[in-house]
Amino acid sequence: MVYPPVFSSNILNQISTMVVILQVHNIFGANTNISQDIRIINGSYAFYQEHFSYQVSLSKFGQHFCGGTILNLEYIVTAAHCIYNNRRPSDITVNLGSLKQGLGVRRKVTDIFMHPGYDNKNLRHDIAILKIPSLGNFTNFIKNITLPDSSPKAGTNCTVAGWGVTETSDSGTLHLKYAKVPIISTPRCRASYKDQLKKEMFCAGYLEGGSDACQGDSGGGLICDQILTGVVSWGHECGEKYYPGVYTDVFYYKDWIRSKSNCLKLISSHLIIFICLFINLLLLK
Ligand code: ARG
User: Which of 74, 97, 205, 226 fits as disulfide partner to 142, beta carbons 3.0 to 4.6 Å?
Assistant: First the structure.
């Protein structure tokens, strides 16, 4: 995805981002091979918060452990395997609106909805919804993302971002990184992963090896044309030849996500109010 240049009103923030990028490069000893070895394994540092306003970090006791995506003012989508061993909502903090780990807005999770079919052995139905106290309103830095209207199309160019493991740091990155990865057709990916690749999963990345998500990026979104198409789920190693990243197909779970994230409830409550008003009007006549 090619991002159009955006002129931020907050120039100081962009400058500080640049300084941090330079610092992170120094900390991790960025080397000259970085452009050849393109495996978040091997993405780029995010520069404009506005471009990643949907991205969140989940942390426990101040420690980042997974990514997530903002669905609306009160709900976050992540991977079920991120939550499997973290079942106490109040132990999980959602960090929003910052490219830097640990900065930005924080919300403690108040409720967890793990997909009821989630299987920790084969990572089937690897999706979960987290509820947070309302964000009030969105800003340029904190925004929701749209759910898909169709299943993923092979060849579509998408972006995955996260604070997970990079080629130079096993403990992840302090500054958000992203990588551009195309969707790979299911028959081509099944040639590698065989029946481990279930029908609610799809692959994105490079069969020849290259840019990929990695440990710590799980739960984050795969964004294609501004739409939340996938959730980082698993993969054999990271950026390996023949083994691209595997993502949960969000389209497959759209109804479940909607039912958990209040959209349907909202519509039905509006319907009830409407019916009540109608009956009142009839009675008044
Ligand atoms: N399971 C990993 C996590 O918990 C994500 C792995 C993604 N791997 C990949 N090669 N795309 O963070």
Answer: 97
Rounded CA-CA distance 279/275 in Å is 6
> Helix, strand, or coil here: 260?
helix
226 CA → ligand 1 middle, Å: 22
List pLDDT tens digits, range 179-231.
Answer: 999 999 999 999 999 999 999 999 999 999 999 999 999 999 999 999 999 99
Rounded Cα distance between 54 and 49, Å, is 9
Catalytic residue IDs = 81, 126, 218
* Cβ of residue 40 lying under 6 Å from some atom of ligand 1: no
Sign of dihedral through CA atoms 19, 22, 25, 28?
Answer: negative
Which residue lies with its CA nearest to atom 1 of ligand 1? 234
* Ligand 1 contact via 164 beta carbon (within 6 Å): yes
Q: How far apart are CA 196 and CA 199, in angstroms?
A: 10
Global confidence as pTM: 0.82
Q: How far apart are CA 124 and CA 232, in angstroms?
A: 13
What 3-state class would DSSP assign to 126? coil
| 32 residue type, one letter | T
